[in-house]
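Posting this for the archive.
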Amino acid sequence: MDITKRCDGISRRNFLRVGGLTALGLGLGNFFLIQRANANTNPLTAKAKSCILIWLDGGPSHLETFDPKPDTPQEVRGPLNTISTNITGVRISECLDQTAQTMDKIAIIRSMTSPLGEHSLGTQYLMTGYKPTPALEYPTYGATVTYVRSQNIKDSSGESLSALPPNIAVPNFTGEVSGNGYLPISTTPFSVVGNSEKEKRGQFKVRDLDFYQGLDIDRLSRRRQFVNALNEFSSAKDADTESVADPELERAYNLITSPEAKGAFNLSDEHRDVRNRYGSGGVNGIGHSCLLARRLVERGVPFVTVNHTGWDTHQNIFQLKERYPTDRNAHLPSLDRALSALIQDLSDRRMLDETLVIVMGEFGRTPKINSQGGRDHWPNVFSVMLAGGGVQGGQIIGSSDTLGEFPKERPVTPSDLSATIYTLLGIDPSLELHTSDGRPVRVAPDGAKVVTELFV
């Protein structure tokens, strides 16, 4: 069984690569992080300037991660034991022993609930806060943050602008959603797509970030000038014509010509002890992905999605702990090292208060082990973990029932979660954006309630 694939057969998808002219199809805009509160922020509650979303693609089991049931029968509690945390009375999976020692910085929502137990639909709901509908595709968190903050950028003539995209996915973005929804394509996540061989040696390198043979800065500059000339011609011809400048070309030009931007992706700049602390996570690279995410937010990138595949465990859920004896790169041990290292690293660098960290997937898993030793899809109750960015750590919000089957207390919907995330990031959940035909759409659904217990 290939644990990197989901039951629907989808594995990691390779997105268009950066570098040379291949970068022109990525749809990235010149939007940048602004550091101050703006017209669409809530200064009373907003503390997070950036967000790292660790997406566990395939549906992670809440019973094997953040909501174990040690006192239930074997067919419910599964093959893993539990471990105490540094918060009295709170236990999580035995495989998350390092994360358990950072529980004072973590909040866990154990009463997430959704009616959608299919991968694509569940992903859309959790990534956007809106239930999927054929009438409209909604933007994901990173796209919304990119767009809203770009609209509040004031005149900054003479200010040096970052060449890094504001919405980055490491190593790529889930193929279940476009990312930008009804927002401009320039808000789409930029997929890194690292070189796996270099990654294994601790050199996470963005493919094709440099020039192709025969393409140099002069040729790229001439193409850029040509596009700008076309834009000026169109504007002169019709004053009502919207700008046709090529944001993809501008982003490619900025990335390729910026040593600072390219340097952000070079993990060899990190001390070996730091790289070892995060771990590699094997071919999935969650350790290096989380380390890269820290480097990116450290350089002002507002939103980074770490996409970790292989959590669709219909068979032999014990593989999450070991794919073979003493396997430290199985999913749970590698997540534990990466997550605990990320939280502690952000804390040590005094970045945690301004960086929101979220760990979630599209749903949970069934309360009972199936005949193949795994768990099937279960959206009725599952867990989401948050830390930093104004989140009050050391607490459990809500609970599931005895079997981990349904919410027992304080049910929280993905819509509620979206209103909470946007509020933490300084965006009013009731803010209205507009589709291309002018239709107003709230950032978070009407009726979504902020989980106020999370806030410091």
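The longest strand covers residues 50-56. The CA atoms of residues 416 and 448 lie 5 Å apart.
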